[in-house]
Amino acid sequence: MINLLPPDIKEGYHYGRRNRILRRWVFAVSLGLLGALLLTVGGAIFLRISTNNYAKQSAAIQARLDEQKIDTVQKQVTTISNNLKLTVQVLSKEILFSELLKRLGSATPSNVILTNLAISQTQGAIDITAQTASYQAATQLQVNLADPANQIFSKADIVSIVCSGNTGNPAYPCTATYRALFATNNPFLFINDGKKVTP
User: Fold this and answer.
1) Core vs surface per residue 172-193: b (16+ CB within 10 A) or e
2) CA-CA distances (angstroms) from residue 155 to 3, 81, 93, 152, 172?
3) Which residues pair with 127 in a beta bridge?
4) Looking at residue 45, what is its pLDDT?
5) What is the pTM of this model?
6) What is the pLDDT of residues 167-180, one digit of tens each?
7) Exposure string for 129-141, b = 16+ CB within 10 A, e = fewer
8) Distance CA 29, CA 35 (A)
9) How far is CA 10 from CA 14, 17, 69, in A?
10) Shortest CA distance to 96 belongs to which of 4, 175, 182, 167?
11) Mean pLDDT of 46-51
């Protein structure tokens, strides 16, 4: 088909078609920008609402924790734990004298009588006082106390031996004092790291 329209009209139609295409593109881009703007605003509103909700939940949880006095309970638990540790420490230094006396009786020579047992200020030690029939009996008691086979003491030292006859018992004229250090694995503590030995 031959277009016999004048060039001015032809050019007008041509620009009219271009304008229509441009209008479509402008409309499409405007719709896209409007959609992006709506998404941005909607996202910001959603984030603000979520933040407010989480803040309210956090405040409610904190209020419940405050009502339950968690800090007070934690302090009480810490106090009980510390008291338990202290009790264990005290018990670990306690001596079962009934068991100790049995062992000491078997380690004591026949010509020696024990007169006193006292916890020494030295940690893990005991002071022993005995009346003996002779100086030799006093030294024999020290040897028996220090004997590792008894599993009583790791070390026993003679503090003094006095044979003056002023003991009030003529059969035992000597008075001897010893300081003995408990063996590491002795069976006479309530709590002991070592294995308990059956007496």
Assistant:
1) bbbbbbbbbbbbeebbbbeeee
2) 130, 35, 18, 9, 25
3) 118, 179
4) 93
5) 0.47
6) 677 888 899 999 98
7) ebbbbeeebbebb
8) 10
9) 6, 11, 88
10) 182
11) 91
Give the distance from CA 11 to its chain's centroid. 93
Query: What count of other Cβ atoms lies within 10 Å of the Cβ of residue 95?
Result: 16
Q: How much is the pLDDT for 197? A: 40
In 10 A of CB 128, how many CB atoms? Answer: 23
Cα–Cα distance for residue pair 187/165, rounded to 1 Å: 36
What are the start-end ranges of the H helices in 69-154?
70-92, 97-107, 135-146
φ, ψ dihedrals at 38, nearest 5°: -65, -40
Question: Residue 27 is inside which H or E element, if any?
Answer: helix 7-68
In the sheet where 125-132 sits, what is the strand order?
A: 112-119, 125-132, 174-182, 153-163
Task: Give me the amino acid identity at 36.
Answer: A
Q: Compute how many other C-beta atoms are within 10 angstroms of the C-beta atom of residue 127.
A: 16
What one-character DSSP code corresponds to residue 196? P
Q: Is 151 left (phi over 0), alpha (psi -120 to 50) or beta?
A: left
